[in-house]
Recover the amino acids of this structure.
């Protein structure tokens, strides 16, 4: 990329930076947190169709960052860039830089499996394997070449706030749990290898409000140890649980990214206000 292209395509990220500096009077701990993952001029294409358009974003460690925006704006695509899950889609092409702890995860010498140990993922539909609860959690360890011990299994299930409900039936199939329990089992599987980051793609959209609120409380606790990046269509949820919010709009553009309070109380862009107040999307 030439220098001109860089300066031209950087406009969105410059806007974001301006927004952040304007809001320094309400600086919180959030904005002081160190960056754990960052994208620079990230583009994603599926064949010739662009799904992410020049996104530059710095995500702080031990915070919850919410990604919001209308259907098809590229939230899942963006999330999958952060642990190279898009590598698994033949027609997907990723350009630009994604750093984790300062290292470009798209460098040739980065092993995607090792990367996914550091950057775990939980999906919209709970997807436990047709195995016992124990083996579901153990799988997360095994696939990463780690030893499966009772202690690690218990620790992960406690971490996912599921232990108390199921500790006396670890041999039962994961598929026999309720949807909310299955989702927490998937979270236990994701945190068992002790990742740095947990990516969550609409983790509560298939759950009833009580199960959803358990996951929300859990996220609150998880963020003490992990960095959580969550896609949600639920504005109240984003406002409740996240420290920072990124608003993507059609075409895979990051339109605004700031402290969650600022995005919901006083967004810079009219399109963002329209979206969060439900005028479109
Ligand atoms: N595997 C794929 N192959 C081809 N195109 C894809 C693929 N996955 C996503 N896309 C396209 O990329 C764009 C962004 O999709 P993505 O799933 O990232 O959106 P999203 O914001 O997560 O939407 P939703 O809120 O509905 O989950 C869409 O136009 C979609 O059709
Ligand atoms: Mg999606």
């Amino acid at each position: 990329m030439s220098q001109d292209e860089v300066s031209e395509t950087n406009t969105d990220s410059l806007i974001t930076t301006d927004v952040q500096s304007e809001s320094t009077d309400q600086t919180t701990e959030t904005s002081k947190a160190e960056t754990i993952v960052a994208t620079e001029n990230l583009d994603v294409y599926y064949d010739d169709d662009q799904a992410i358009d020049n996104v530059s974003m710095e995500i702080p460690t031990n915070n919850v960052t919410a990604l919001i925006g209308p259907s098809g704006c590229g939230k899942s695509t963006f999330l999958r860039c952060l642990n190279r899950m898009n590598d698994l889609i033949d027609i997907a092409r990723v350009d630009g830089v994604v750093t984790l702890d300062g290292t470009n995860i798209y460098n040739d010498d980065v092993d995607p499996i090792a990367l996914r140990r550091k950057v775990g993922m939980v999906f919209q539909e709970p997807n436990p394997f047709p195995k016992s609860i124990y083996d579901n959690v153990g799988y997360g360890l095994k696939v990463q070449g780690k030893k499966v011990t009772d202690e690690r299994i218990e620790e992960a299930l406690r971490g996912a706030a599921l232990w108390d409900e199921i500790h006396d039936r670890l041999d039962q199939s994961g598929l026999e749990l309720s949807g909310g329990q299955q989702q927490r089992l998937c979270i236990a599987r994701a945190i068992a290898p002790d990742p740095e980051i947990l990516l969550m793609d609409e983790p509560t959209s298939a759950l009833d409000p009580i199960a959803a609120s358990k996951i929300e409380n859990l996220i609150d606790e998880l963020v003490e140890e992990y960095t959580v990046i969550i896609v949600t269509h639920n504005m109240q949820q984003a406002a409740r649980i996240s420290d920072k919010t990124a608003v993507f709009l059609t075409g895979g553009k990051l339109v605004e990214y700031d402290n969650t309070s600022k995005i919901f109380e006083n967004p810079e862009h009219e399109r963002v206000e329209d979206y969060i107040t439900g005028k479109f999307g």
Observations:
- The chain has a mean pLDDT of 88.
- The beta strands are 35-46, 49-60, 64-68, 92-100, 103-104, 119-122, 197-201, 227-231, 244-249, 253-259.
